[in-house]
Please model this.
Amino acid sequence: MRIGKAARLRKSSLGDRVFDLCNIIFMICLMIVTIYPFINMIAVSFNDANDAIKGGIYLWPRMWTLDNYKYIFGESDIYHATLISALRTVVGTAVSVFCTAMLAYTLSRQEFVLRKSVTIFFVFTMYFSGGLIPTYLLIRDLGFINTFSVYIVPGVIGVFNMIVVRSFIEGLPEGILESARIDGAGEFTTFIRVVLPLTIPAMATVSLFVAVGQWNSWFDVFLYNSSNINLSTLQYELMKILQTSTTTATSSTSDIYSASQGNSGTMVTPASIRATMTIIASLPILMVYPFLQRYFVQGMTLGGIKG
Model:
């Protein structure tokens, strides 16, 4: 009897080891497939454009150069656009996360009679929108054209983010909130001093979502602020550089051309510019993510379980 039980344990242990081995191999392959394109972009961005069009660049530049970055940062508007992007990311993220958290707290309260109706109203907007033209007309009528507010106000509430935060708040012990009320705290005080500190994982998760969206956004600049160079963002300026380089390369007999605007002798191609833009646009988010990773994983896990 004991021999049969030991054999079953050995068999189960062997199966677990085989499963773990297959899982490790699969995850390593997935990691390689995920990371390789980014590493390749880095290699192309630091490689000479004339040499890059020959192909064969994988993990390491064949001919090192900084010409691609010199061309990008040689644009006179790039630094001011970077400042605007950073400003809209910080302000937009702070305002959106705070307002979304307040809405989530309100809709998580059982005593709020209309919470189901309001939730349905917000969820409806996740699947249906007014369309591009009605949205533009609304933004125009509100007076947000050529203003910094157009980066902040339209996205002040994220419905998906609200659902994540609300699910997290609903999982908090009700006794903590009741204790705050017994001590004389109002709803806003309870939200600021009790709810916010306890929802840091969910808030960090939502902050990462909003920050990435704000940093990468350029289409709203194109629609609403394209005529105001002082409100142009980094992503929009990079898009214009790529469009200019692609047009120039297409109209030329060669895929390589000499960059203008003070970068005399700098040889770039649309492929090299595209790779360089990818690195420049991704670097700030990559620098922030390690600090939020612990909260990001925890917030998504707990939010999913409690939802």
